[in-house]
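I hope you will forgive my troubling you with a question about protein structure. Could you please explain, in whatever detail you think fit, how the structure tokens follow from the sequence? Thank you for your consideration; the sequence and its tokens are set out here.
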Amino acid sequence: MTTKSKSRSHDGIRAVIAMLCATGLGYWPLYVQPFVIGALIDSLGLSEAQAGLLMTAEISAIALVTLGGAQHIARLATPVPLAIGAAIIVLAGNAISVFLDEFTWLLLARIGTGLGAGISLAIGSAALAKVSDPDRKMALILVGRGIMGAVMIPLIAMAISKYGFRGSYMFLTLIPLFVLPVLLWLPSRDEAGREEAATMEQSLELLHDRIGMPVFVLLMGMFLMTLGESVWYSFIERKGIEIGMSLDLIALVLMVTTIAGLLGAAVPAVLNTRLGRQLPIYVSMVLAMASGCVALLTQSPAIYGIANAVYTVSFAVCVPFIFGVSTRLGRTGAVTAALGAMIVGGHSIGPSIAGFVVGHGGFPLLTFVYAGANLAALVCLFLLFEFISRRDQVADTMVSEHD
């Protein structure tokens, strides 16, 4: 290997680490949200609805900034100063939250934290267009971010065990401290990046102009599926407490199942499209819905752990296939980008809905809402495949008549 190729490889690794950390500031709160919600209920005395609202406000701020600022951030030649500023906002928001006891002030602090996390997530996502071999680097980012998220689960549980809800925000304050130096490795935009930024708005306009029923049902399907996941995951820690599990044991279960989900994400890479996309999506969605319901209704810790693992693997198998379907509906990347937006959107409102439902009807009612969201998503995807099949039939007919 030449000196130049070694340097390029080294720069590539540093860029992956930087993008992993930048996007992680936006995604890692999702990994630990059940424990934060539980701590707010137990040690601060908030209701389920209030705790869910705090998490919804934070994730909604992340979503709005990410979606609204992505195209502007993509134009930045050097994103490092803004990324450092965003990390400092996240650090400050978490540090301030440690000392707050009043709901309104805590709500404002979490919204501010979400704004910083959203900027960081947008910067890390936009940076992918500035590197070579983006598909491979994205895979590395997903795996690395997932492993770090899994490691955070038992650590934040330990912090909460010692210091209550303040411990959760103490732990979250440490993350940007470790991330800050790495953000210096974020890649700057090259000529290809400038062209990509220039065409981003054109891609969004193309999506707006040509959006049809197939794209609409695809986006609704992903939104409902992610909403179901968020409703399920937000209070899964509370379910473990209800059936007599310790916080440390719940953390262990969720850490192991998160890692299992990373293995599940490899299944689409192995299968590719040998079985098509329709069958794996249907099978994995039904398994996810069934196992999720079992996890919310069971009174057995063992079944709780098994159901969690089956759900996480099934969901991880399904999502890449859905993204694969999105590539058939548009080649500009706009449809796929909109699909990612639906994931963030579903996660943003799930905790608030779950908090309200659990507070009024407990886990049986939450299971009903969760199953309803997944059934609606399944119907949307069924309609999607019907639309695609009819479109292909029309295309084949036109080709035959032309011949």
About this structure: The radius of gyration is 21 Å. The chain has two domains: 10-198, 211-403.
